[in-house]
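Aim 2 progress update. The chain analyzed this quarter is reproduced below.
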Amino acid sequence: MALRLADGTSWSDTLARAVAAAPEAFGTTPDGAATLHNLVEGGWRAVGTPSPVRTPVDNTVLVNLARLDAEAARGAVAHAAAAHREWARTPLAERKARVDDALDALTAHRDLLAMLLVWEIGKPWRLACADVDRALDGVRWYVQEIDRMLAHGREPLPGPVSNIASWNYPMSVLVHAELVQLLAGNAVIAKTPSQGGAVCLTVAHALMRRAGLPATLLSGSGEELSEVLVRAPEIGAVAFVGGRSNGGKVAAALLDSDKRHFIEQEGLNAWGIWNFSQWDLLAAHLKKGFEYGKQRCTAYPRFVVQRDLVDEFLDVYLPVVRSVRFGHPLAVGDDWSAGDPLPELDFGPLISAAKAEELRRKVDEAVRGGAVPLHRGKLDGAPFLDGQDTSAYVAPAVLLAPPGRSRLMHAEPFGPVDTIVVVDTTDELLAQMNASNGALVASLACDDEELAGKLAVDLQAFKVGINKPRSRGDREEPFGGRGASWKGAFVGGDLLVQAVTVGGDGRLYGNFPDYSSYPAT
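Predicted structure tokens:
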């Protein structure tokens, strides 16, 4: 049966809704194409060089992103620093009221923000809604708790917070963090991710600006703007979320600085299986693990399995992988009508055709090097539109025993590809789970929870789940990483507010050049 776009979900319809919601933030090129303005120097300005942005859903151009150069970014940072000084003097009650106003406006446009995420980064509807809801619900919790968190003399930073975030969670990570930073008395600067989320962030920041919040949103090349957004003396803190390559560059740029920072980088999060028999419990976790094609920093792409359990593990694991649903997030049958649910998928495309091709090459490289392909899915039969470009889609793949020299052995694939490593001793289990020099999360499946607890002590992960996965967490949960997966202050709950304020007693939790200190998780 031929599929079609669900009524009212086309990009032209979605863009029209976005422009209606925030007309001040949009413009057009001379040939009439839609262009996003930059939120700099207190207003939306038509500055920068337009560059087309494509959707991974079908590889069509969505909009033009006006990219700034370093000189324009310096002016934006200087203005943000002046706005910061004024905002830092604003009474907490007023800051809370303005953030509440922004939350009300964002809530009113919740469905639009979610649909923008579907088109811009390929999230299925359910996951896109969850990203928006987590941001709004989380910040409302902080509004209720902020008085307590700022007690005992905590004050805003000396300058605005510069946020450089990846594309995969524009609302629940980036906007959420900005709103909490604003609550704490800091002006905020955000760089639009180059790969996706620009329109969603533009609409969100337009609503934030209308509520009187001192926010800056600018676009441009990370290579060109990093010097300004990281090293400018006016910047009070740098928040980075992304890959280890770019994160390492940010960390290196801060080496000769005492600037506050929190740099979250992906790690190879592993799930170890030892003396385990609760397979039905594990199956439920395995399916959920494929959400958003494992394009998140807390995904589990590595399973380290006791040799005696490999057959039982595969009996459970392979049927789960074969049941994973992926495809065009908005493709429906002719019998679909308004009000019907949108497709229930585990994931859509990867963020770009280039990333999809890179992942395919990594899989081929590992197989040529000796990995055993236990499962390689196909795009055939997935729900796509007739003639649709599918270059950004990758079907799930599972590789047994990737060779030590392959990239999949030591780095997170950031896509729906799992690797399985077989071990014979608990020492080998720990060594393989710690193969990437630090991770954000890890899990152990073990019937003997006392033994699992003892093994967990030696895992290089910030959070360890016993017979359950661990996630970034919401509200009061702290979040960080061990080893190379995290530099600087930890965040989450009280720690996020402490990371963007000064004063009070005690030193910050985090990984710093001269010490590391970890909270209970």
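Residues 288 and 326 are 13 Å apart (CA to CA). Residues 125-149 form the longest helix (25 residues). These observations will guide the mutagenesis experiments scheduled for the next reporting period.
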